[in-house]
Amino acid sequence: MSAALARRVATAIALFTTITALEAQVVDHTDFDRTLKAHVRNGLVDYDAFKTDPAFAGYLRLLATTNVAALPRNEQLALWINAYNAYTIQLINVKGERESIRNINKSLGFLRLKGPWSDAFAVVGGKTYSLDDIEHRIIRPTFREPRIHFALVCAAIGCPPLRSEAYTGARLEAQLNDQTVMFLTKTPAKNRVDVASRTVYRSQVFNFSDYMKDFGGSEAAVGKFIARYYPAGPEKTLLERGDFRVVETEYDWRLNSVTNARLVPRVQ
Question: What does the domain layout of the chain look like in residue ranges?
Fold first, then answer.
């Protein structure tokens, strides 16, 4: 083999190896995407359909065997968001709950049970996690991305609505941005700005646990964060100025199921 041919062969092998490595760093979320498109409508979930769909079971098996550490950042975050949402659906079905996620492992008198979010059952990359582990010990400290609070869906009507598509590394930025705009500006029963009374009506999502620090740690910082997703106008100006009072809207913990469609406030 001539030196020139040997170089061409070596170059081809290196290119193939690079392409193969890049392909290996992308997770195929097709099964979850297909089930979300089939069984989620306007954020409401057909839990019974997920329970019997083999594609959903296949996706959980994929999560259980994926080496997350080998993935690029956006692929990792997309996977963890999908894992949280998929295992929340699985938890509702495994427990047979059809009223509220808060009924799962509920405290009984003086006996404090785990609750739904601290029950370790979600298998990702060969390790078992609780939903709290995924959110508070992996996603929040690792990625420091406040928009995840509008992408992680806790199976309640008061949550941001579940998307009818899986998150992917390639589209993550656009998906998170769209989810944030939708929740902050297009769900007036949960979030809205009343300029006349200088009042920001705001979902309790911002105040759960220590979530506020993810948005800057103060009411003024939260206002500036929300303002980013408003077009130029009096609402944006009020939010940026910080001269407003906050009223928390009611958080509806009823299950975000298709059977509860009539309970969901209309989007105006």
Answer: 3-263
